[in-house]
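User: structure tokens for this one?
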Amino acid sequence: MYINKSCNIVKKHGIIPIRIESSLDGIKRKETDLAVIPLMNISEREYHVKTEVVFFLKRHNIPSNLLTFRDQIDLKALKENVETKLELVLVDHHNLADEDTYLMDSVVKIIDHRPQDKRWPWPGREIHLESVGSCATLVARNLFDKHAEIIDSQISSLLRGPILVDTCNFSKEADRATPVDVEIVESLEKVGLSDLDRDKVFNEIVKAKSDISELTIDDLLIKDLKVIVGIPIVGLPMLVKDFLDLQGAHLESLGNFAKCKNTTIVVLMGMQLNAQEISRDIAVFSSHANRLRDKIIEALMASTQPSLELSLIRKIHQEDGDVNLFLYEQRNLRATRKQILPIIRDTVSLECRC
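Assistant:
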């Protein structure tokens, strides 16, 4: 099993039931010497920044020493070993980072709820690609379809939590949930959950996700990070405007972060959840004025699919007068990162071909 680098609550909890499903599939096929390993695509030292994941797994009596992290296993060696056959299941993504393209022919199955990336068609693979509110919904549906008898209260709880988070607890304002998400959660709740109070579970996870008391600025920048066509897209558990007010969250720290990622541009996306209320903002930082930054901002402002409804609320200048950071309120609360990423990806790809 192989999950993407943001490695948030959906990915971590979804792959545990997938591990069970894959093991049972192997038994049905009468396979021997089969090892199914849920692989977290982050290093072990990064695990602590996933505060909501640490909380939720502890709640289900799953300690970190039962998890396998990317720096604990050598996929290249496994792939090159003639005595083993490496098969990968991609969970909550369907593309590979440049450094992982050598794994392409080992991918046998994909489970994702993102829009299809035409550059990654994956012919001949088992594909579960559907636009639902949560990837955990697809994981749960597969499990109900193939091995419903093994779904107990523990597995049900592990799957329902991520769906509640991904759909913002079925908030009408967020409008993320689909009828499939609703149906699956209702089916999971019929299994016999010990805690049927959705609001309570959702609020506990959100509180854990928002707990930054033990995190540094650098931790926050990698807590929910995606890198697309060389541009870091930082997801924050707070609004960007509040992040910028934290001690140490100055332009120099963003510049150092960009330098470590071999870029001059960083996009920051903030979200604040209070009960059923959602707020979003987005910022574009650059260590110096450049055409690519301007093109990204132009594309975000001009986008109609979706329209982000951006309103400039702040500019931060460096000493020579150049603007380093543009901060916007995002009034379209339904537009999520998975919808914004393609805008940035296409803009950068087009600009870099010029």
